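Q: Entry one of two.
A:
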Amino acid sequence: QVQLVESGGGLVQAGGSLRLSCLASGNIFSMHAMGWYRQATGKQRELVARIISGGVTNVADSVKGRFTVSKDNAKNTMYLQMNSLKPEDTAVYYCNALLQTRLYDAVAEYWGQGTQVTVSS
C-alpha cells in the first residue's frame, strides 16, 4: 500500500508564497518520478512540475521562474515552492508518483488527495 499525502495549501494574497509538501509512504521499492499537477475549477488537470529519478526537473512554462520543485530522498518528500503567486494559480494541487512496489513489478501511478491553493487578488 502506497500513500501520498499533500500539505501546505491555503489562502494567500497575490504576490505571496506557499510551500507544498508531499510525503510518500508505504511499500516503495523504487521511485521513478514525482510530480505536482493542478486542476482549476472547470479545467483539465495539468502538470505543474515534476522531478525524475536522478534529479532532472521539468516545470510548466506558466510557472517557470516562480515555482521550484525539489525532493528530499531521505524523507521521501517532494516540495513545491511557489513564489509570486497569481490568482490564476488557484487550483487543487495534486501529488503524483510513478513507482515500483517490488523489483519485478510494473511501474504504477499513484495520486494524493489534493490540497487547495487559493490566491486572492
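Q: Entry two of two.
A:
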Amino acid sequence: QVELVESGGGLGQAGGSLRLSCVASGRAISDYAMAWFRQAPGKEREVIAAISWNGANTYYAGSVEGRFTISRDNAKNTLYLQMNALKPEDTAVYHCAAGPSMSHGMDYWGKGTLVTVSS
C-alpha cells in the first residue's frame, strides 16, 4: 500500500509559479511510474504529466507542455510539479498518483491540493 500526500497548492498569480510536492509512504516510489492529474470545477479529471520510475521518460498534456515540469527524487520518495507561467485555467485540484507504468492505470492516489490562479 502506498500513501500519497500532496502539498504546495494555494493562490498564484497569472504568469507566476508554484511548486507542488507529493510525498509517498508505505513503499518506495522507485517501484512505480508517477503522474499528476488535475480536476477543474465542472470538468473531468485529466492527466497533465507523467514520469517513468527512473525519470528517463516523461509525458505532458498539450495544455501544460513547456510551462510545467514533472520530476522525482526517489531517495526522498517525493514527486514534484514545477508550474511556471500560470494561467487562470490552471485552477484545479491537483492529485498525484502512482502505478505500474506510464501507460497503465494508476493504483494509488493522493487526496489532492487546490491551486487557484488569479488573473
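A: Comment on entry two: The radius of gyration is 13 Å. The mean pLDDT is 96.
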